[in-house]
Amino acid sequence: MNLTVRELADWVGGEVLGDGTVPIRAARTLSEAGPGDITFVDGDRNLTAWRESHASAAIVTAVVPLNGRPLIRVTDPLAAFATVVLQLRGNQNKSRTGKIDPTAHIDASAVLGPGTTVGPYVVIGAETVIGAGCHIHAGVSIGQSCRLGDAVELYPNVVLYDDCILGDRVIVHANSVIGADGFGYRMQGGRHIKSPQLGRVELADDVEIGACSTIDRGTFGATRIGVGTKIDNLVQIAHNCQIGKHNLIVSQVGIAGSSTTGDYVVVAGQAGVGDHINVGDRAIIGAKAGLSKDVPAGAKMLGAPAHPDIEQKKIWMSMAKLPEMRKEIRRIKKKIGLEDE
């Protein structure tokens, strides 16, 4: 598909600077773009790369000056570039046909909203209600009495156990499991006896769950994920957790049972949160940190066991000096006539 810079600007509501008749055949990033391509420059940190790029045009912010090639000026170049990429590829939502594949098994008591697409070999249980404009990809299994809002997307092989509740515009990526039993056992007569796992999982509006992540149902109540929270791949959230709004939880994080987070919390990759721990609003938990106690609002935690970031950096600096300190101690002992043990 060949379009002009001006036609692309019309798609994104941008202002054209320079020759708007330059033809564009594809949209590529700065490192990959060549003649005939449009790219994007998000702020002044990429100005050198833009000058060196062979791209024919760019989508930019106001800080990017003209350099002889046409620009499309917008407030959010990344979002505008994504729109252009999708348009040039052709509408990626053509698969949202509202059709139901004949191999899908849908219980007669289930209700599907208008425009919902159901792919091959999907299973939808009794009394489940699915909203409008949803896309249920191949191999998804949805249990009984689930409630899904509008525009939900479940990628291949997602599993929703019974009684799960998903808000509007929830996205769950491939092979994730929502609502499995929590890991709860009691010791009786020398054996581990399973504790009841009778609650559910609730994902609020605009939650996104990465591939191969798991969120366990509550023991009696609900495990909840707050509005707008984004969870990466390979994350485990245990039973009874209450995750706040607009959290970012990065890959391989594990959050143990009955822990809570406030709003706008960031938990970086491979961090571990112990059970019954509260993490306050806007706290940041560094990569591989291990939390064994509550974290106040706004704190930045590093290390395992985790300490406030300034304290932990001092600990790391001290550890780096240990070999030198050990040599110095040996010299002092030798000088005063003490033998090493």
From TrEMBL:
Active site per UniProt: H239 (proton acceptor)
Enzyme Commission code(s) on record: 2.3.1.191
Enzyme class, broadest EC rank: transferase
One Pfam family linked to the record: LpxD
InterPro entries xrefs: Hexapep, Hexapep_transf_CS, LpxD, Trimer_LpxA-like_sf, UDP_GlcNAc_AcTrfase_non-rep
Keyword Lipid metabolism in annotation: yes
Keywords tagged on the record: Acyltransferase, Lipid A biosynthesis, Lipid biosynthesis, Lipid metabolism, Repeat, Transferase
Top-level taxon in the UniProt lineage: Bacteria
One term of GO molecular function: UDP-3-O-[(3R)-3-hydroxyacyl]-glucosamine N-acyltransferase activity
Cellular component terms (Gene Ontology): membrane
Pathway given in the UniProt record: Bacterial outer membrane biogenesis; LPS lipid A biosynthesis
Catalyzed reaction equations: a UDP-3-O-[(3R)-3-hydroxyacyl]-alpha-D-glucosamine + a (3R)-hydroxyacyl-[ACP] = a UDP-2-N,3-O-bis[(3R)-3-hydroxyacyl]-alpha-D-glucosamine + holo-[ACP] + H(+)
Listed GO biological process terms: lipid A biosynthetic process
Keyword match Transport: no
Domain UDP-3-O-[3-hydroxymyristoyl] glucosamine N-acyltransferase non-repeat region: from-to ranges: 22-84
HAMAP family: LpxD
Quaternary structure annotation from Swiss-Prot or TrEMBL: Homotrimer.
Functional note: Catalyzes the N-acylation of UDP-3-O-acylglucosamine using 3-hydroxyacyl-ACP as the acyl donor. Is involved in the biosynthesis of lipid A, a phosphorylated glycolipid that anchors the lipopolysaccharide to the outer membrane of the cell.
Protein family according to the UniProt entry: Belongs to the transferase hexapeptide repeat family. LpxD subfamily.
NCBIfam families on file: lipid_A_lpxD, PRK00892.1
Protein name: UDP-3-O-acylglucosamine N-acyltransferase
